Amino acid sequence: MRAMTQADVDVVLAIELAVQRFPWTRGNFIDALTNGYVCHVDEEGGEIRAYAILIQVLEEAELLNIGVAAGQQRKGLGRAMLTGMLNMAQEKNIRRVFLEVRSSNTAAIALYRSAGFSEIGVRRGYYQNANGGEDALTMACELTQYSSLPQAGERPGERANG
Ligand SMILES: CC(C)(COP(=O)(O)OP(=O)(O)OC[C@H]1O[C@@H](n2cnc3c(N)ncnc32)[C@H](O)[C@@H]1OP(=O)(O)O)[C@@H](O)C(=O)NCCC(=O)NCCS
């Protein structure tokens, strides 16, 4: 995992367009980089396979985006990326990470739960789409409850001290 740069945006955008139902634009990624959001990619052998973007506000943060290339999904990369971002957040003294997710995005919801997020609210009809509104689930992960965060492939409940 390394910091995303503007040179990565073409590849990240191509992944985003392929995997997200409602993708960010190039401008969204450029804004995230220029505004100092925490933007990281997973790269192996020169190939960018995943990315995640977090915004910090004092002791809290919001996970704004996470995506894994279509051919690389279900290999643990999403969880590794997410736990990497949470560990980084903990190092920045962030105490709590929020996110919002479409209620239909069962893959992402399962990933977030497995990484220690729990649902704290629902915004009815928050996302607009062709069929009308779709609910947003608000989820939160308290970083202070772990002495160290779960590693890739390890769930919080599996930890002896978790
Ligand atoms: C959500 C996403 C990031 C998951 O990444 P991934 O690398 O495929 O996920 P992992 O292999 O790390 O899986 C971690 C856990 O997530 C859940 N999960 C991932 N994909 C899933 C799917 N298709 N169906 C159900 N659960 C899924 C499972 O709980 C999985 O744990 P398990 O393998 O032990 O069962 C990926 O599917 C993706 O990029 N989706 C499109 C973009 C998106 O929706 N982003 C979130 C909103 S911004």
Structure write-up:
The chain is built from 4 helices and 7 strands, in the order βααβββαβαββ. Mean pLDDT is 90; it is low at 157-162. The protein has a 7-stranded mixed sheet with strand order 1-2-3-4-5-7-6. The protein is globular, with a radius of gyration of 15 Å. It has one domain (2-158): 3-Layer(aba) Sandwich (Aminopeptidase). With 162 residues, it is an alpha+beta fold.
Supply database-style keywords:
single chain, about 160 residues, alpha+beta, Aminopeptidase, 7-stranded mixed beta sheet, 7 strands, disordered C terminus, binds coenzyme A
Give the distinct bound molecules: coenzyme A
Shape: globular
Given the structure, what is the number of helices? 4
Strand content: 35-45%
Assigned CATH architecture: 3-Layer(aba) Sandwich
The CATH class is identified as: Alpha Beta
Largest sheet: 7 strands, mixed
Rounded to an integer, what's the Rg over CA atoms? 15 Å
Please bin the fraction of helical residues: 25-40%
Number of domains: 1
Class derived from helix and strand content: alpha+beta
Q: What would the CATH topology be? A: Aminopeptidase
| Low-pLDDT windows of residues | 157-162
Order of strands across the biggest sheet? 1-2-3-4-5-7-6
What series of H and E elements makes up the topology?
EHHEEEHEHEE
How confident is the prediction overall: mean pLDDT? 90
Number of strands: 7
N- to C-terminal distance: 25 Å
Give me the CATH superfamily: Gcn5-related N-acetyltransferase (GNAT)
